[in-house]
Specification:
Blueprint (H helix, E strand, L loop, with lengths): L3 H16 L3 H13 L1 H23 L3 H6 L1 H24 L2 H5 L1 H20 L2 H10 L11 H34 L3 H23 L4
Length: 208
C-alpha cells in the first residue's frame, strides 16, 4: 500500500488545499457564523460525505465523464448553481428568530447535513480536481488502485474535517457575539445571501 511518508505529504497538501478559499470552506464559515460552530460542523460532515461520492467517482472512472463531456459537466454545475441561489434566497428571507431558536437549530441539523452533501456533489469541479489530484499519489506497483484511491480520499476527508472544524470554531465564536443583536443577525443573513449568490455565479460560469 501507500508508504507513510507519501501519506504525510498527501495529508499536508490536502490540508493546505482545504485552507485555500473555495465554495466549501466559505459556506462553512458563513453558516458557522450564522448558526454556530456545531451547525458548521454538521455541514462539514455533509460536505465530506459528498467527498466520498467524488472519491468513488474517481475510483470507478465516473469522474472522467465530467472531464470529457461538456453536457454532463454543465448540467451538474447548473443544478449546483440553482441550489446555491435557493439557499441565498432562504438566507435573505431568514429572520433573527429563525436562527436564535434552539429548537429550530436542532430540527435543522438533518437539513444542514443534506445541504452540505448536495452542495458538494453538484460541483463537478471537485470530481475533476480529485481525478487530477488523487492518482498522483497512487502507484499500481503498491497494490489495487481502487483501494489506494479510497485511502487517499479518506485522508483528504480527514484533513478537510480538521481544517473546516477549526473554521467552525473560529467563525462560531465570532458569530455567537454578533448574533446577540437582531440587527446584526439581519446583516449577517444578507452577507451570507450575497456570498451564496457570488458562489452560484462563480460555479455557473466555471469551465472544465
Amino acid at each position: 500500500m501507500i508508504p507513510i511518508d507519501s501519506l504525510i505529504v498527501f495529508f499536508s497538501a490536502s490540508a493546505l488545499l482545504a485552507l485555500s478559499p473555495g465554495p466549501d470552506n466559505i459556506f462553512v464559515l458563513t453558516q458557522s457564523a450564522l448558526r454556530g460552530a456545531f451547525a458548521g460542523f454538521i455541514i462539514t460532515l455533509g460536505l465530506c460525505t459528498g467527498l466520498l461520492v467524488h472519491t468513488s467517482a474517481v475510483a470507478f472512472g465516473v469522474a472522467a465523464i465530467f472531464k470529457t463531456s461538456a453536457l454532463a459537466f454543465n448540467v451538474l454545475k447548473y443544478i449546483g448553481a440553482v441550489y446555491l441561489l435557493y439557499m441565498a434566497w432562504k438566507a435573505f428571507r431568514a429572520s433573527p428568530a429563525d436562527i436564535s431558536s434552539g429548537k429550530n437549530i436542532e430540527r435543522s441539523m438533518p437539513v444542514l447535513y443534506r445541504r452540505g452533501i448536495i452542495m458538494n456533489i453538484t460541483n463537478p469541479k471537485v470530481s475533476i480536481f480529485f481525478l487530477a489530484f488523487l492518482p498522483q499519489f497512487a502507484d499500481p506497483s503498491r497494490g489495487p488502485l481502487i483501494l489506494q484511491i479510497f485511502l487517499l480520499g479518506l485522508v483528504f476527508i480527514l484533513a478537510a474535517i480538521i481544517v473546516f472544524g477549526m473554521v467552525c470554531i473560529l467563525a462560531g465564536t465570532i458569530g455567537d457575539k454578533l448574533r446577540r443583536s437582531p440587527r446584526t443577525q439581519n446583516i449577517i443573513n444578507r452577507i451570507a445571501g450575497l456570498v451564496l449568490v457570488g458562489l452560484a455565479l462563480k460555479l455557473a460560469t466555471s469551465e472544465r
